[in-house]
Design brief:
The chain has 215 residues and is α/β, with parallel strands linked by helices. It has 6 helices and 6 strands; from the N terminus they run E-H-E-H-E-H-E-H-E-H-E-H. The chain has 2 domains: 177 residues, NAD(P)-binding Rossmann-like Domain (Rossmann fold, 3-Layer(aba) Sandwich); 27 residues, no CATH class.
């Protein structure tokens, strides 16, 4: 569908799940993709090796996005690889967690906001010198931001915040020719969606879908 030859892309959380699928799609279109990982170094390395074995271009970089200085550290690694130009940023890395309002802990709440909101905000800030007319920033949101589903109030709130930031980033960066668009998937069968691993969970998910399947 797209020709991304001579384009560079960064995918955070790119070693598994939606991120991995995104990396493969981008490399298939010809892009040189930087695969960010938090803890899954082996998986990221295996993905990079798989891409290179097929003639694609990929590199792996690690950073714990729960840490306040991680966006700056990640941006420095990206600059060292791509030089002065980055065409695509897919802010996919995220953490999830279900808890009732009564059970929600401060530690887990803070972790959700650190990884899902603070990290992509300041990563875009740190990458601004590399973005240019024609660059695209794509945060991964969630339908949980617009629907009340289960006990995901804290997680859903972070995705609601991301949806708000997309509007402000688009307004601020649009005059420079930088597109900002969020993608909000429904239920996707990945490691983060643990409830899809049980029959009961899958039934709940499928009952919410117009097409009776899980992505």
């Amino acid at each position: 569908m797209f020709d991304l030859n001579n384009k560079t892309a960064l995918v955070t959380g790119g070693s598994r799940g939606i991120g991995r699928a995104t990396v493969l799609a981008l490399t298939h279109a010809g892009a040189h993709v930087i695969v960010h990982y938090g803890r899954a170094a082996d998986e990221a390395a295996a993905l990079v090796n798989e891409i290179r074995a097929k003639g694609g271009k990929a590199d792996a970089v690690g950073a714990d996005l729960a840490q306040p200085d991680s966006p700056a550290k990640l941006a420095e690694q990206v600059k060292a690889i791509v030089g002065g130009k980055l065409d695509i940023v897919v802010a996919n890395a995220g953490v999830s967690g279900a808890a009732t309002i009564a059970e929600q802990t401060v530690a887990d709440f803070d972790s959700l906001w650190a990884v899902n909101v603070r990290a992509p905000y300041f990563l875009v800030q740190q990458l601004l010198p590399l973005l240019h007319d024609g660059s695209s920033v794509i945060p991964i949101s969630s339908k949980a931001a617009s629907s009340a589903v289960g006990n995901l109030s804290a997680y859903a709130a972070t995705k609601g915040a991301d949806d708000t930031l997309v509007k402000y980033f688009a307004a601020a960066l649009g005059p420079q020719g930088i597109r900002v668009n969020a993608v909000a998937p429904g239920v996707i069968d990945t490691d983060i969606s643990s409830f899809t691993k049980t029959e009961e969970g899958r039934k709940v998910a499928i009952d919410m879908q117009a097409l009776k399947r899980i992505g």
